[in-house]
C-alpha cells in the first residue's frame, strides 16, 4: 500500500482534487522523478475514448438494469504487449460478436458488447515480492509496470511502461473501431462465422437448430430488401480494472461539453476486490469520474 500523492491536477482551467488517501496494490516505483515525468506526459496525451461514448454506455447499461438489454463482457484477465497483435484482437472481438448474435436472437433483446481490453495491463498481487530459489524480486505486476522474466532488471518497475500501455491501448482501440465500423462486424459475416462453428465443432452442433433459425430470419429480411446500417456496424465498448491510480488519474480529463471529469482510458472502469476500501483512493477516484463504474464483489 502507498499514499496516493498528486493531490490535484489542472485540465481546461479546472482543478481536479485528488485527496491524499492510501492507495492499495500500487507498484513500488523506485524513481519518483521518473514516475512524475511519465505521468506528466500521460496527462498531455489525447484521450483513448470520448466522454460522449461513456455517456452512451451509461444509457445502455441503464436499459439493461430495466431488463431491456443484455450485457456481454469478455476478454483476457491480463493483457500483454507481446499479445497485442491484430490477430489476437480480431479473435477476441470475433468471439464476443459471435456470442452476441446468438444472445440477441435467443433473448430477443439488444446485447451491449463490452471488451475487457485496451487497458488490462496491470495485475493485483497478494504479495509484492516473489521468492524463487532463495532470490527475492518484485512480483510481476503487469506489463504496464514490469516484465514476467525473473531477473532483477526485468522485474524493476519502469514508469515508462505506463506510456507503452497507453500506446498499446490506443493501437488496440483503433483496430477495434476499424473492425466494428468498417464492415468486418457485419451481421451476416458474424452469422457465417457461427455457421462455420456449428459445422466444424462438436460443441457447435448443439446450436445447429438455432443457427438454422437465424439463417432463415436473415434470408427473410434479405428477401424483403432490409439492409439497415445496424447490420453493418456495431457498438463496442472497452473496459478494464482501474488499478493504477497514477495512470487513471493522469488519464482523467474535463469534458468540454459538461465540465465534468471522465477517465478517458476506457469506457467502463471497475474496482477490484483488493482495492474497494471505502476510505482509500480507488473508491474516491471512482466517485469523481462520470464513467460507468463497477465494483467486484467477492467473499471478503
Question: Can you give a write-up of this model?
Answer:
- With about 300 residues, the protein is of the alpha/beta class.
- Helices cover about 40% and strands about 15% of the residues.
- Helix 3 (about 85-105) links the parallel strand 5 and strand 6.
- The two termini are about 20 Å apart.
- It is globular and about 65 Å long.
- Helix 6 packs antiparallel against helix 7 (about 210-225).
- The longest helix is centred in the N-terminal third of the chain and has 22 residues, at about 85-105.
- A five-stranded parallel sheet has the order 5-6-9-12-13. The chain has a two-stranded antiparallel ribbon with strand order 1-4. Strands 2-3 form a two-stranded antiparallel sheet.
- It is built from nine helices and 13 strands.
- The protein has a single domain (about 1-185, about 235-295), classed as TIM Barrel (Alpha-Beta Barrel), CATH 3.20.20.70.
- The chain has helices spanning about 30-45, 50-65, 85-105, 150-155, 160-180, 185-200, 210-225, 245-250, 280-290; strands at about 1-5, 10, 15, 20-25, 70-75, 110-115, 130, 135-140, 235-240, 250-255, 260-265, 270, 295.
Q: What key attributes describe this structure?
A:
about 300 residues; alpha/beta; TIM Barrel; five-stranded parallel β-sheet; two-stranded antiparallel ribbon; 13 strands
In short:
With 300 residues, the chain is an alpha/beta fold. It contains 9 helices and 13 strands.
Write the layout of secondary structure elements.
Layout: E1 2-3, E2 8-11, E3 14-17, E4 22-23, H1 32-44, H2 51-65, E5 70-75, H3 86-107, E6 111-116, E7 129-132, E8 135-138, H4 152-155, H5 160-181, H6 187-200, H7 208-223, E9 237-241, H8 245-250, E10 252-254, E11 261-263, E12 268-271, H9 281-288, E13 293-295
Parallel strand pairs: 5-6, 6-9, 9-12, 12-13
Antiparallel strand pairs: 1-4, 2-3, 7-8, 10-11
Helix pairs in contact: 1-5, 3-5, 3-6, 6-7
Amino acid at each position: 500500500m502507498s499514499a496516493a500523492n498528486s493531490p490535484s491536477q489542472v485540465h481546461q482551467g479546472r482543478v481536479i482534487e485528488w485527496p491524499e488517501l492510501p492507495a492499495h496494490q500500487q507498484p513500488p516505483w523506485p524513481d519518483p522523478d521518473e514516475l512524475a515525468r511519465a505521468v506528466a506526459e500521460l496527462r498531455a496525451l489525447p484521450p483513448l475514448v470520448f466522454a460522449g461514448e461513456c455517456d452512451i454506455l451509461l444509457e445502455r447499461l441503464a436499459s439493461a438494469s430495466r431488463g431491456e438489454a443484455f450485457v456481454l463482457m469478455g476478454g483476457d484477465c491480463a493483457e500483454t504487449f507481446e499479445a497485442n497483435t491484430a490477430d489476437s484482437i480480431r479473435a477476441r472481438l470475433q468471439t464476443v460478436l459471435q456470442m452476441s448474435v446468438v444472445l440477441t436472437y435467443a433473448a430477443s433483446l439488444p446485447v451491449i458488447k463490452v471488451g475487457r481490453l485496451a487497458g488490462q495491463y496491470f495485475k493485483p498481487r497478494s504479495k509484492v515480492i516473489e521468492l524463487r530459489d532463495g532470490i527475492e524480486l518484485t512480483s510481476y505486476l503487469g506489463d504496464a509496470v514490469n516484465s514476467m522474466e525473473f531477473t532483477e532488471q526485468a522485474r524493476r518497475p519502469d514508469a515508462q511502461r505506463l506510456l507503452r500501455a497507453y500506446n498499446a491501448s490506443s493501437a488496440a482501440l483503433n483496430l477495434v473501431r476499424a473492425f466494428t465500423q468498417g464492415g468486418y462486424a457485419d451481421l451476416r459475416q458474424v452469422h457465417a462465422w457461427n455457421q462455420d462453428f456449428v459445422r466444424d465443432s462438436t460443441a457447435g452442433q448443439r446450436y445447429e437448430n438455432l443457427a438454422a433459425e437465424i439463417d432463415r430470419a436473415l434470408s427473410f429480411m434479405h428477401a424483403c430488401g432490409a439492409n439497415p446500417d445496424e447490420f453493418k456496424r456495431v457498438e463496442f465498448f472497452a473496459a478494464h480494472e482501474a488499478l493504477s491510480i497514477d495512470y487513471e488519474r493522469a488519464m482523467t480529463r474535463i469534458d468540454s461539453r459538461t465540465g465534468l471529469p471522465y477517465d478517458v482510458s476506457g469506457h467502463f472502469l471497475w474496482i477490484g476486490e483488493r482495492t474497494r476500501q471505502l476510505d482509500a483512493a480507488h473508491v474516491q477516484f471512482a466517485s469523481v469520474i462520470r464513467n460507468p463504474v463497477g465494483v467486484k464483489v467477492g467473499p471478503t
